[in-house]
Design goal:
The chain has 11 helices and 21 strands. With 325 residues, it is an alpha+beta fold.
């Protein structure tokens, strides 16, 4: 990883993007990333964790709205995307590039972090699920998503041996408030139990306090938000920035992208890659967590920063317009 890219983005941000790309499986358009995420992507490219993906250059995602795909045509000023909503929009090099995560890179690094013996080869069970070998005499299973195994119990049974396996997956967008598989496996969330440093992955043993994903100081980069949108600071609250879940951060990132322009709920949630119907759904506090600042403060931040037009059915975050003006 080059020093130039390290100066732009921290290890935690880069690792968070790596986990997201691994869980996503499909190619990711570079134009869909924020500037900090592009820096993280460059860092992943340096360590060969991602590679360019061949895409159909006849059509690209509109560089302006990023909601529709349009035909690429030659204009007087270069290539342009013919978006059905935005019209002719200039196409830059990044708008024509897509990247895919290399699971073989992750498998090699995880085997190294767990000291899996070289003679124990990694085996693909099905698409998106691998058996890496053994750690502490227990099989190690890696999957692109937790739901892949939760929804197919028979698949999980095929990966088990006599001992309770270690199960490594990225964390779902939604909060997981129980132990998956009821003790039939020891779940190791990729984002929490592993860290990236200097191009290598380190393992944090269960029972030890994992280093927080915010190893990088939560400096406010996007208005009241940190670089990865996992922290938000409210001027009315005197104290530390508020920690957000990945889903909450994705909703705020989506609202920020629209630069203060009102959008319907489905547009915001689609860009955030959340299955919930409305932005506030990921901020709601369940009765058993009421009064807990960990859950109440993100909701307070949402109510302070997001305005809703119930009649029009639109949502807007005014601070994004001020910051991007």
């Amino acid at each position: 990883m080059t020093s130039a890219n390290l100066s732009k983005v921290g290890n935690a941000t880069t690792w968070a993007l790596a986990c997201r790309l691994f869980g996503g499986e499909g190619p990711l358009l570079e134009s869909a990333l924020s500037d900090p995420e592009r820096s993280a992507l460059a860092a992943l490219s340096d360590i060969r964790a991602v590679k360019l993906h061949h895409v159909d250059l006849r059509y690209v995602l509109c560089p302006y709205c990023q909601l529709h795909r349009g035909q690429v045509v030659q204009s007087a000023n270069g290539l342009a995307c013919q978006c059905p909503d935005c019209g002719s929009v200039a196409v830059q090099a990044a708008d024509r590039q897509a990247w895919v995560f290399d699971p073989d890179w992750l498998i090699r690094k995880l085997r190294g972090a767990l000291n899996v013996p070289a003679q124990q080869g990694a085996v693909a069970v099905v698409n998106g699920v691998w058996r890496l070998g053994t750690y502490q005499r227990r099989p190690v299973i890696v999957a692109r998503s937790l739901d892949l195994l939760l929804q197919r119990p028979s698949l999980f049974e095929r990966t088990r041996g006599a001992a309770v396996p270690w199960l490594i997956t990225p964390k779902p967008v939604r909060d997981v408030e129980h132990v998956p598989f009821a003790g039939a496996a020891t779940w190791l969330p990729l984002e929490e139990r592993f860290t990236l440093y200097g191009g290598n992955i380190s393992f944090i043993e269960p029972g030890l306090a994992p280093e927080p994903m915010t190893l990088d100081t939560p400096v406010l980069v996007h208005g009241p938000f940190s670089e990865d949108f996992r922290w938000v600071h409210l001027a009315d609250l005197q104290g530390d920035p508020i920690a957000l879940t990945p889903a909450q951060a994705a909703v705020f990132r989506s609202l920020w992208h629209f630069a203060g322009q009102p959008q319907e709920a489905h547009t915001i949630m689609s860009r955030a890659d959340c299955s919930s119907d409305k932005p506030i759904d990921v901020f709601k506090v369940k009765p058993k967590f009421q009064g807990d600042p960990k859950y109440e403060l993100p909701l307070q931040a949402y109510k302070a920063l997001v305005q809703t037009d119930r009649r029009a059915g639109t949502y807007v975050m005014p601070c994004a317009a001020v910051a991007t003006a």
